[in-house]
Write a structure and sequence with these properties.
Layout lengths: L6 E11 L4 E6 L12 E6 L2 E12 L4 E6 L5 H5 L5 E5 L20 E4 L3 E10 L6 E6 L2 E6 L3 E5 L4 E4 L9
Length: 171
């Protein structure tokens, strides 16, 4: 049985690609390098982690892979994955493409603004929009900061510095 604590989040399914069941997956991982004979991706389906075996993979862009699953052969079936997180077991983890614009590694990093100072910690990364958004815990509330506003990402100190525009806090 698959245990959620043994899984690593590798990305998010955006929307179906075409009508033959292919899915767009936003990820910073090289899924072609998954280390097992029958590679699969796990999705949470009604609270249960379910493995889906990969039939095909092809690169769409630097951060998007088109995935075909066994048994998912239509746009209607593929729609069931829209907005779902993609996971794999940690022992299958492929190497991370450090040049890919994936931001999942900064979960837990402290965010500060060059003028405002410390804001809070990154709790998650949202790939559901055109702009990747950092979910940040600010005074016990979640705020969204576009990842494009990051000016410094310091892995050693686990810190992200952003440059927030004038009026950001008035929204």
């Amino acid at each position: 049985m698959i245990k959620k604590e043994e899984l690593i989040k590798i990305g998010l399914f955006a929307k179906p690609h075409g009508i033959k069941g292919e899915l767009s997956l936003s990820t910073g991982y090289d899924l072609a390098a998954i280390s097992c004979d029958d590679p699969f991706i796990i999705c949470d389906m009604d609270g249960i982690p379910v493995p889906f075996f990969i039939d095909s993979l092809r690169q769409k862009s630097h951060s998007t892979i088109l995935v075909g699953f066994a048994g998912v052969d239509s746009g209607d079936k593929a729609k069931l994955f829209t907005g779902k997180q993609a996971y794999i077991p940690a022992d299958m983890l492929p190497p991370r493409d450090e040049d890919a614009p994936g931001w999942d590694f900064i979960t837990g990093y402290t965010v500060s603004d060059e003028k405002f100072g410390k804001i809070g910690q990154v709790t998650d990364v949202d790939y559901n929009t055109l702009n990747i958004l950092l979910k940040v815990n600010y005074n016990e509330k979640e705020i969204l900061i576009p990842a494009a506003l990051a000016t410094i990402v310091d892995r050693e100190r686990k810190m992200v510095e952003v440059s927030l525009p004038e009026g950001f806090w008035e929204l």
